[in-house]
Give the backbone structure.
Amino acid sequence: MRDAIVDSVRKGVATETDRDEASRSAARRSDRRHVLHPWSAHGALEPVVVAGAAGAHFWDEKGRRWLDFSSQLVNVNVGHQHPKLIAAIQAQAETLCTVAPYHANAATSEAARLIAELAPGDLNRVFFTNGGAEAVENAIRMARLHTGRHKILAAYRSYHGATAGAIAATGDPRRWPSEPGAPGIARFWGPYSYRSAFHAADAAQECTRALEHLADTIMVEGAHGIAAILLETVVGANGILVPPDGYLQGVRALCDAQGIVMIADEVMAGFGRCGEWFAVDRWKVVPDLITFAKGVNSGYVPLGGVIMSDAIAADFEARAYPGGLTYSGHPLACAAAVACIGIYKEEGLIARARLLGEEVIAPALQAMQARHPVVGDVRGLGAFWAIELVRDRATREPLVPFNASGRADAPMTEFAAACKQHGLWPFVVANRMHIVPPLSIDEQALRDGLAIVDEALHVADRYYAG
Ligand SMILES: Cc1ncc(COP(=O)(O)O)c(C=O)c1O
């Protein structure tokens, strides 16, 4: 299998076949002519025209199937086309498709009640949005109103969304073309043991030093002006960076000491991805605000939101909350959330994610690390893992340069192509592959997918120079 992958990648067979098939499709022609895809240069774009999906698989118009190791954009947590989720959306459509957000309705009320019940501590009220970026925007707004302060501390190596405030808070290269952005964001380094900004020798030292650095950042930025610390509980798109034990508790303590609002962005990490309802549960930390989206209803209808503490909710008892969206609490999206939360419970998917991580994914990735020199680090939890590829294990030089594109990114492009050619849809970003399948993935399918990754890594091994 290894040689087949390497050969086919070298010959570019997969790419040619994809192009021929796609060129016959009217959907593809209209897409190429009329659709602007996010984050893409359109000249070179060859999107797969997805014709259908079920469980952990999706397929194109010619019936070519892929095992979805990406959960699309890490959102399809219960898998594709779950019958109960479809039925709930259909039933809601029959009853009430849409209402203005100043009305109450059964679907929105029930979704809010369930989310509040699952959320830790006194986070009891929900403001619904259409997705993650709007959730972050509104969390920032709430923190500013609550504290009367303006500044937001946000981490390097983070992603918070593509609207004006969320992209300004984002700590990765997707922010650069939007600069200069919204003012009032200051930045800090979070923990990342494999590439420690603090020259730490182990996780405990990384934790201590990252917290000292954060305390110093607060000091020099001026605590009196800082409204919130915004951070992903487990950093997602920037590398599946699991914080060392004690870090989030330390952030909570710093916030408490200085009257700063703690915002946990759980748009990607929440709703089971980390083997917990909310990733903060793993460390028993209660933030003041949690932002969510994606897994709340597995993306079947766009939905996001902010869950707020009683103290923040109380701000808007007597005075109006100065923010809104036509589709806040959209009934179809909220009915999907109610059904999705029900599926998580009935199928035990939260605990299942934890078990799959511990018993299947972790051992498989560790074995890959032992077999493939190019694998520098493996890390994660639940159904949320990363394989980090390096040119040299001793220096930890990434397999491709920071923010690489085009020829410089070839090792990763070829690795991804090898996965796709053998029926696996990977989530490849920078010098990493993220292993983020649906939480409901069949165990054998998961093992088969991991075997494809293992074989495809031989393509990346060819670039190892250590
Ligand atoms: C942690 C985090 N926050 C916010 C967002 C933005 O969410 P959306 O794309 O729904 O606006 C994302 C998207 O990937 C995310 O991962």
Notes: The longest helix spans residues 349-371. Residues 73, 131-133, 136, 159-161, 232, 236-237, 265, 267-268, 293, 304 surround pyridoxal-5'-phosphate (CB under 6 Å). The chain has 15 helices and 16 strands.
